[in-house]
Structures are given as structure tokens and as C-alpha cells.
Amino acid sequence: MANSIKTILIVLSLLVQQDLFADDTGLIGKKEAHTEIDSLVSLIEEIEVNPYYQISKDAIYSFVNQEKQNLQKDSISRKDLFLALSGITGLFRQGHLGIIPDDSIFNDDSVFNPLSGIIKIEPGTHKIFITTDATIQNISFKKDMEIISINGIPSNSLINRFISYVPAETDAFACSSLSYSLGFLMAADKMAKQYRVEYSSNGHIDNKTLNGIKAKDVIRTIPYSPMSNEFSILNDSTMLFSFNQCPQDNRFKAFVDSMFATAKDSNIKHLIIDIRNNHGGASSAGDAVMMYLSENPFNSFQKHETRISKFFRKSRKNQYDNDTIITGNADLIAPHREDIRFAGKTYLLTSNETFSSAAAFSWAFKEFTDGIIIGEETGGVNICVGDVIGVKLPYTGFKAMIPCRIFYEYGAKEGDEIHGTKPHIPTKADDALDYAIKII
Q1: What is the pLDDT of residues 281-305, one digit of tens each?
Q2: CA distance to 28, 228, 354, 385, per residue, from 99 (Å)
Q3: Which residue has the higher pLDDT, 190 or 97?
Q4: Which of 20, 202, 258, 369 has the largest count of CB atoms under 10 Å?
Q5: Containing H/E element for 155?
């Protein structure tokens, strides 16, 4: 989706890596807290095309009233209000809608679960697993070790408690996002000085107590920023294109032209495109790649609808004077000439984290090429919102991301089941590259 900003899961991961917490978390009056909630819902309704396409308005308003009932003290903590607001946006089940985590809800004494950066949540089961070998406070944790409970709370109960706070259309993408943000949300909900961890190792159940640690000391397996795009030749017939982000600049087009020129000069027969870690950006980036892959005119999207509101007019110069909703049908994009296009076989690697414009690219790849998709269903889906407008809430200063446009990927129509791009060969994302090489 053109001009979409970084997804909230990246913001969450970055904030927990910083040690920038304010000295005073502050309190908000009850009246102001309730007004803040009402302001958020009003902004969503004013900016979005159809905020209730995933959930009924009655369900949202019922939840809002319940959140207000939960916030009845004269003074409300910023942490409690942050969770209430995040719970509301999460209920809409939209991957581009949410409250950006604010480090001011913590103070200098705040500590976090030391496992925060090295866990992965399994979709469906909501089990928690360790993602890498690590020694923490003289305790050895191994990759794929299962965490059974934390502070006496079973892992799946813990995940079910917090998964509704995460912006996502699907359970799989929510699990992926929550893998990054669980430590942040647990600390916001109820900060603990110690964490009693029960885990399974080689069929044996054990438990250890870990001390909470400062954010800057949490081991992270999450990159500080999106990885760069790069390509490499694996052997005399195979090229790997690590398509890690979708930038909106002419340098990316030049990079793509150079890559396919190299593939042609090197007589490459097999091209593996890896978008497992791509969270999106500009849809034009995917189009630049697809022009080399598709034999026929293509587009990731069939149509889109945009709400022109005062917020839209303020954030983007346009010719509209009044509030309205406009519908645009996407024109098909002409591919390159046959003598320029890539003539070999293509393989696309996907994961639950493949999102936004990257997921749209995967949809076009499946619709308009004969390439093979290997991995997991994408986190980005066939009917989705995008093109985010940032707003600031009046009392807390919390920033919200609210999408102003709804996209229908090619062939999708209103009322369709919401799902991502489904792979031809389903396998764990971590195994997808090895699988592609094995096929070749």
C-alpha cells in the first residue's frame, strides 16, 4: 500500500529496546480518560471508509462502555489508559489500525521479562517457544524450547489475554506481532520484578525464576530497522533476492533493473524471492519486480475506496473540498517486453509476517505468474485497510495510526472470507528457503 508507515509491531520492538522512559508516568482524570476513549472512536469513524467491516458497531460500542466502567477511579494511570485504547483498536481486527506504544507509560525503574526478545507464539495453539539459544542469568535456554507458563499463568491463557491488543486481521499475524510486543504489554498490564518461568526441555518440565531487567538489556532477535534489499548468486543457475522492504524511491527501481540484468548476464534459471521479513511500504516496489515476472498486464489490487476527510485533506494536498468517499478501479500495469523479462522459474518465500504491500505483491505473484509460493499464509490479506493517517489524542498525547483507504486485492470482493496469500507448498517459514533449494 503506497505511503503506508511502518507497522506497529516494528514500533513495539524498537521501543522496548530503548532506555528512554520518563521519570513520571503521570495520571489522567477519569473524565479526561473517558473523553480520550470517545475521541479515539470518533476519529476512527471520521477517517476510515468502513471501520466496521470486520466487527459490528454495536460490539465496539459495548466494549467501549465496558472499558469506561473499568476506568472509574478519579485518577487513571497512563498504562491503564494505553491498554484500554489498544484494546479498542485491536478489536477492529485491522493490521494498520492501532495505538503506537508510548515509552512515557513507564518510568526509569521499569523492568521487563528477560525472555521478551527471544520468543515466538505459535498460531492456533498459542504456545510460546524460544527462538534462539541464549544464556540468561546463568540459565541456558535452547531454540524451540516450549515455555509452559509465566508466573503461574499458562502460556495460551497469557496469549489469549493480550492477543486482542495487537492490530491484525488474522490470528497468525497477531501471533507474529505479539511475539514482539508481549513483554511490553505484560509490563503495561502488571509489571513484575521477577518472572517464574516453567518450561519443557527434552521432555522434562523445569522452572526457574528470572529477575526483571532494564529494557536496554533485553536480548533482541528483532532488527532495529528493516533489512536492506539485496541479491546474491547461490550457484551457477540460482539467484536469491532478499526482498526485505518496499521503498518508494527511484533507487529501488535501479536496483531491480540491475538485479535482472545480472540474472540475464549470468544465465540464471531459478530466482528465489524471499519476502518472509518484508512488512511492506510502497506498492510501486512490488510492481517494479512484477514487471519482470508477469507475461500479461497485472495489478495487486482490483479497486480501492478512500474517505476524503479533513484529516486526509490536511495530510495530503488534493483537489477535494468536501468530505466524500471515492472509489478507484486499478488499471492493469504493462509488463516489460519479453526480451527483457526473466525467463526462468521463480519461487516466492512467504511467512505470517509478510504484510501490507509485500503481501499484495505475493497476491499478484500468485495471480499473474506461474511461480511457486513456499512457506506460510501471509499476514496481509485480500481485503485490507492501508494508507495511514497519524493523529494525536488530546489528553495523553498518544499517537494513533488510522487508515483512510480500503483495498481489494485482485479478484477479491466485498463479503469474501478474509485471508492472506496461501502458499502452493505450506511449510514453516524457517524451512522455506531450504525447501526451495531442494526443489531446484
Answers
A1: 999 999 999 999 999 999 999 999 9
A2: 17, 27, 21, 16
A3: 97
A4: 369
A5: helix 155-162
